[in-house]
Amino acid sequence: METIIDFFTKEIVVQNINRLKQPLYFFLDEIQLIPYWQDIIKRYYDLNLPLKFVVSGSSSLFVFEKSKESLAGRIFSFMLPVFSFEEYQRITNNNNFEEYLNFGQFPELWDFSDQTKKITYLKDSIIAKVLEVDIVKLYKLRKTYDFERLFWSLLPNTGQIIKSSN
């Protein structure tokens, strides 16, 4: 990451970075894949250079936790909300509220016509990743099997009273 930033500022901008009249923006996606990304950004920030970083990642819990640790007082967090039903309707021309509740938060599913494919995608690409990677990594879970069993047993009982004896 440092190599890219340094190359861009020296070879592409082609002027002394301290003399820039406007800040230079770096948009970095999937930031959680770069080890110690928060320390690298902090280092640039502390140099008081006219650089701004916009970071995002699919492991938003991990990104948020790491940014709180090293970037306290240097960061503005912006949580991008999911599409509202009105936005979903406007974009997809679909007024089916149940479809929106089940799949409307995932624009990548809007073009899927097969319900089975939608469910498979959610289960394999979203839920599995959050359960098996994001939560395990963030909270350092050791009993992942037990956690997954708990999740799958609670899922169909949303809004219900659950007895711990069951």
From TrEMBL:
Coiled coil: none annotated. Residues 14-88 form the AAA domain. Pfam families: AAA_14. This is AAA domain-containing protein.
